[in-house]
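Morning, I've got a small favour to ask if you have a moment. It would help a lot if you went through both lines with me. Thanks so much in advance, here it is.

***
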Amino acid sequence: MIKKLKNTWIIIGTIIFVFSLTVVVFISIQNNLIDVSQDVSQKVIHNNTDTLVSPRDPLTSEQQNHSIESEKPTTITDDWQRESVTQFLEQNELHSLQNISTLGQRISFEITSEDNSWVRPVYSENWHSSFMGGKYSNITHLISYAQRNVFIYHGGLSEGAGLYYHLGFTENWGKPVGSSFNSAESFEIWSISRKVKEIIKLDDQWLVLVEPQLQGYQTLKINYKDTDIKTDQTSEPRVMIFRVITPDGYELERTVGILPVQ
């Protein structure tokens, strides 16, 4: 009888030991799987930020550094606008300001938005890496925009948002900037710290006569039907140069637009 009880306790002890060992192994395996999963997730986040990072999550320090500076020290003198202006000048003879003013067509325009109190910010909250995943944080893009005051807006939400945020307008700005229009029929000129007084066109060259201002903005809509630009299926979009001048004939800047948009 005593021997049977002893055997029974041995069997019970063995069962308890095996069960305990099984629990320990299961917990250990589960923890290892969690560690592996977290490691893989971190690698995916590092290698593909668009997959797991919310558009409004802040960038990592490494990503922030890349948006502020290039990997190696370098000097950048040309952006897309300057390169396009240079290409236009290489392929076309530039009219004199006098000839454009004398021989060119006066173009009518509609002021679609205007505010004289707006001050262009030194830094905008929308340039921070926490806004839309740092979409507007690239320092070279921001400096490129800051060097100019007159912009051609061809239409579309993407291009409009890029202009809006790069120029420093914020989501809580309560006044209109630009307008909605059919890009097959019109385009806009956005002018920062400038009041447009007259627009003249000769061939593919435009004069935008402005009065410099200390602050404010103005947007103008130009309809293709009010110009000599044809918008039928036979017309091809082409690069046109816009020269911004003062009433005294001083040229302030040059920019380009690809018109008409089709």
Observations:
- The first helix runs from residue 2 to 47.
- Residues 153 and 160 are 7 Å apart (CA to CA).
